[in-house]
Amino acid sequence: MRMNSLQMQAFGPFPGAQAVDFDELGADGLFLISGPTGAGKTTILDALAFGLYGTVPGARSDAEDYRSHYADPDTPTYAEVEFTAQARRWRVRRSPRYMRPKKRGTGMTEAKATAELSVFNPESGHWDGIGRTVSEVQAEINRVLGLNAAQFMQIVLLPQGEFARFLRADPIEREPILRQLFNTEHFTGLESILEARARQARAALDAVSQERQTLMRQAQGSCGEDLPIPTAAHPSVADVDAVLGAAVSVVRERIDVFTEVLQSARTRSADAEAAADAAAARQADREKLTQLRSRQEAYATSADERARLSQLQRQAIKAESVAPYGREADRAVREQEAAEKHHTAALTAFSTELSALPCQPETTSAEHIVQAAADGQRAAASIATHLTRVADLTRERTDLQQKQTAAAGRVAELEEKAAAQDAALDELNARLETRSDVQREYDRLLRALEAAAIRQQRGDEITAAEQQRDKQQEALKDRQAEESAAKDTYARIRSTRLAGIAAELAAELTSGHACSVCGATEHPAPAKPTDDTVTKSDEDAALNAWTQAQNATNTARSTLAESRARITALTRSLDELAGEDAAVSVAELTQARDTAAQTLRELDQARRERDELQQKRVALEQQQASAREDAQTSATQLSAVGGQLKQLDDVVSGDQAAALHPFGFETPDTSAAAEECAAQLQRLRNAGETLIQAQTKREDTAAESAERRDAFETALTEAGFTDRNDYQEARQIDKAGVDSALRAAADEAARIAELTSQDWYSPACADTASDEELTDSVAVTAEQRTTAASDAEHLGQLLAVHRHDAADLVQLRERFLHTAAEVEAEVAQRRGDVALDGIVRATSADNLHRLPLSSYALLSLFVEVAHNASERLQTMSGGRFTLIHDLSLHRREKRAGLGLQVLDTFTDEPRDPRSLSGGETFMASLALALGLADTVAAAAGGIRLDSLFIDEGFGSLDPDALAQVMEVLDELRAGGRCVGVISHVQSMLQSIPQQLRIERSPTGSTITHRSSPDS
């Protein structure tokens, strides 16, 4: 696992976008991160940790304030890390939760935490998304790196001061850290099972005691008396039963007392209810009496108004009786005026028509003129009809002559067209006689093509099956080779394990416990595992791999047999498809089929043409018959018209012409002139008739108007009106409003009379109490009713509670006695589970070393950590210091095994790590960190750690010690690691070429990559 690059923005002291290329920095395997205090050197490591795991090392993770205070509000905060793991390039991008400006409006809103993970696809050249939620990304990161956040921050990031605290920590403080780094769950499995059983047992025992104590306290609470309760941790059945029995007796006595008290309270409540109702009724009657008296006074006050309304009502009634006469008089006047206007207009129109005549008639009587105009109009109309008929017959004769000529030509044309259609029908019928032969040939070709297609498909299937068979043969060879290799591997691993079984058994030895081989409790020289030691799990894995390889070989062999059987079946099916057209190619058959199909389409088209032509021939015959009939009809009509023209007399009679002379008209010679003369005389006749009617209407309306006016005046006098103005004032009265007001007054009088006749009226009048006295009486009786009802209800509730308590106590006692014997038997079994857990988890004095199974496993790993760290420390200290594992039991410790001491070769005495100087502490802490990293990496599956970051501490070393520490870092670099260190030490600034310089300013920090040392 190697860190490749880091990009961050608005993170920590960095307000803008910053990029760190670890591949370029780590080209030499070692680079330095430098800068003034507080500039942000450690922030680079924080950004790495946050990008990968969403948290940062140490106490800084509690702040969760990752956003830069120097950044603009609109600048997003993120950290993006690219790393290589499992031979693939990965990129993870995270944003923390922070406040940002709202996109709409003003103010701030919370930006949610986000995470995105992608992997580079070398084939497409693009990044493929893996996860987009925080949980998905974190799960995939843990899987890919093989480390959780705590492990990463202990073995890849060596935080400032963290390992010095770990070095100086008490053994009891180291255990939670080591458990966080090493997976010992498989060792704690048995402990968890036994602990769970013991916890259940203790819970069961406590539950029994608690249940019995609860029963007794419940009984005491139900009866409300201080009953004597036993103080033993586990009360007996007899103790509990005695308490329950006493509680039942107390509650039953209390029920008898409350029953008598409740009966008296209910009697008092009923009396108070009746008194309150009576007081409320008196007050209600007083309120109704007050309202009634107010209404009586108001009615008496309105007497004058009622008299005035009655007078108005009488006037309005008289006006309504006279109104019809007035309306009739007005109508007669309007009709007389209209008749006068109509007569004037009719006289004007009649004079206009007279003036339009060629000469004026001798008479001036409208009646005589109208009669003469009627005679002249009829004569002119008769002349116009005679002349119009002659003209129509002449035109009709010309049209008939043209139709006769056209009909003869149409008959000849249709006969020629019929001959052509008969010839075409004969030709089409001859072609259609060959269609049945063509159809049979087409059907035969279709069957031949279908058979050829099936043969071709079978051939293609055989070819594909043979290719698949060849691939399966190669696959079978590969599976057989893999099976042989897996078999050899299993044999080798099993042989190796049997050879090193002594070391495996020695790993299980415990001081003071008998050896499973020889039985001895002392183990002075146990066998040690070699570099090629294998375990039982390794052997099981190899056996499982061999079994899987055998299964894969059998599967490949079965698949190959199925393919061979399929090829045989397909070949047999192909042979069965051979026929008479087997030698003809598919292309030739297809061409022949297409030719036959085209011929069929052409013949079908010919058949449609024949059918259509036959229909046209039938229609043509109908057209021929119609044309002959038209020619005959035209000849007949032409003869008839000629006869009619010979019979017409062109001379107009003298009487008809004489009727036109009084008005100055000459005898017309055209129908149009005759029609115009008739129209003019008709207009004169109409105008005269209208004038005569208007004269009659004028005379009639004048007489009726005088009659209606006299009747209206008579009605006014009889009704008592002095004149028309008096009548008009009466017409303005709102009779509906007056009627409504008088009805309302009558209704009020009836309601008042009804109220005074009701039963409550007389007692209310006789009641001499004041309103205040009635109000006080209602309040007092209502309060007394409420109090009495509340007392009765409360007593009823108490009685119900006591009865319920008595029933509950009886049930509790019965249930307890029913299960008591069974519970006592279970208690003995549970005590055995508790004792076994104490031994396995070292909580019992029977475990002499007070060391549980999981701690023993952790102890073994810690021994390896101390060994790896000692090798580093010896190099750093020039061989002076060695870390040794301390098994002694220290103060405040419950068990031994996680102690550390430093052996000083100058004195050959072990020293407490807290006694080391600052530089010595740094070397020991760094060695411990590197040793822990090696052990965790091995325990996590042998993952390769190609990146390491060390934060501060180098300033406490003298030049020689610093040189020795640098030797260790060079060894790490030579081993392929890229090591980044954070330091202020001047010699490191001068000796490490690749540097990452952090510059600080009032507006935030920036990062600069330098490829040459400072001078």
From TrEMBL:
Pfam families from the UniProt entry: AAA_23, SbcC_Walker_B
MF terms in GO: ATP hydrolysis activity
Stretches the record annotates as Disordered: 459-488, 608-635
Comp. bias intervals (Basic and acidic residues): 608-619
Gene Ontology biological process: double-strand break repair
InterPro entries on file: P-loop_NTPase (IPR027417), Rad50/SbcC_AAA (IPR038729)
Residue ranges with Polar residues bias: 621-635
Occurrences of domain Rad50/SbcC-type AAA (ranges): 5-216
UniProt record similarity statement: Belongs to the SMC family. SbcC subfamily.
Oligomeric form and interacting partners: Heterodimer of SbcC and SbcD.
Name of the protein described by the UniProt record: Nuclease SbcCD subunit C
